[in-house]
User: Which sequence fits this backbone?
């Protein structure tokens, strides 16, 4: 099993290397791939040091699986070239997510849609993954009419330069900025470009990706996405209107029994998810479960997850694991 990681020296790519290293996924040959400026750099994987190679050399190596995390432009240019030599491309950018012929996959929800002919698989947006993992078992049990979500997103979602901006502001050091305003001691309700209606790209992603992953065009979704001065770990406040009524005890039981979810829901003892405790973990943490008393059949909950792991790298590796297990590679 020959595995390549495109963008291996980047923030998400380096976590892909780490996640792949930690899991029992069989790798017989490993290829870290990056842009020309990073070619020749060292990347460590399972006790060995590998030199970063360029795209053409990676294609010549004929990998079986290629994990992409190098941005949409790179994916648009190179994904089909890898797929053309028979590789499976699992892409973390937004390039292919809404393409009608390409699967958008969260393994716990819709991996069973993947077929042998699928050579490019899209990894959803980090915030979408984190929201839908706990919503899906509720969707199956009760149905969903409407989702209202507000996100509290860490600066690692923007990249390493955003982390540097936050830390430099904290030290009162002037440096390059990636946000239009200070992020330290501030929150910025603006992730991605605005459209003509005033929604940002990040908000539109959550709306459209939910409909595609659930295969439900009737489901209503609205989102407000906010950047906060936290290094790692996204959080979300989710309000969901179900089609059927529920008992809060049953919702707790369903979520507690769902693989990939850790339920931290004990307000009397101040137990609830927080980003500081989810970093480095692969699960989605859920808490603050309570009935929305302002309207029927509605529920509030809070969720935190490591945006670089389950929100990106881990989800991609899980897709690869599923495809190998089902002999789709």
Assistant:
């Amino acid at each position: 099993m020959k595995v390549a990681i495109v963008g291996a020296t980047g923030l998400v790519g380096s976590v892909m290397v780490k996640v792949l290293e930690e899991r029992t996924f069989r790798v017989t040959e490993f290829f870290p791939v990056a842009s020309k400026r990073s070619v020749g750099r060292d990347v460590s994987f399972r006790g060995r040091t590998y030199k970063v190679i360029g795209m053409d050399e990676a294609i010549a190596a004929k990998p079986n699986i290629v994990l992409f995390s190098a941005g949409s432009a790179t994916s648009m240019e190179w994904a089909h070239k890898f797929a053309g030599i028979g590789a499976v491309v699992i892409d973390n950018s937004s390039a292919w997510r809404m393409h009608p012929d390409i699967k958008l996959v969260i393994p716990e929800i819709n991996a069973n849609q993947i077929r042998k002919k699928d050579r490019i698989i899209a990894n959803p947006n980090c915030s979408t993954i984190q929201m839908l993992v706990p919503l899906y078992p509720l969707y199956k049990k009760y149905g969903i009419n409407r989702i209202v979500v507000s996100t509290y997103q860490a600066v690692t979602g923007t990249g390493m330069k955003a982390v540097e901006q936050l830390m430099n502001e904290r030290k009162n050091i002037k440096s390059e900025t990636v946000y239009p305003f200070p992020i330290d001691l501030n929150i910025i309700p603006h992730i991605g470009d605005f459209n003509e209606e005033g929604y940002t790209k990040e908000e539109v992603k959550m709306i459209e990706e939910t409909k595609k992953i659930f295969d439900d065009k009737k489901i209503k979704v609205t989102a407000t996405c906010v950047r906060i001065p936290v290094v790692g770990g996204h959080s979300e406040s989710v309000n969901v209107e179900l089609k059927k009524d529920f008992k809060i005890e049953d919702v707790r039981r369903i979520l507690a029994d769902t693989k990939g979810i850790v339920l931290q829901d004990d307000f009397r003892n101040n137990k609830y998810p927080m980003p500081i405790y989810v970093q480095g973990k692969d699960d989605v943490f859920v808490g603050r479960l309570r009935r929305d008393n302002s309207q029927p059949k509605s529920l509030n909950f809070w969720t935190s997850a490591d945006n670089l792991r389950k929100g990106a790298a881990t989800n991609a590796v899980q897709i690869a694991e599923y495809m190998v297990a089902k002999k789709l590679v």
About this structure: The chain has two domains: 2-124+312-325, 127-307.
